[in-house]
Amino acid sequence: HMVSLIMLVDDDIVNDTRKAFRTDLLILIMILRNHLDCDLNVASKVK
């Protein structure tokens, strides 16, 4: 279903959506990494 939907959509729109999605993913990964770093620091302090 998704593939046929993408074929109907203009290429520029698809590319913009992909870029936006990739940017959101990168931001999410950065936020998660920051949280993981904090958790690791707290865990090492507990020891």
TrEMBL record:
Domain of life: Eukaryota
Name of protein: 23188_t:CDS:1
Organism in which the protein naturally occurs: Cetraspora pellucida
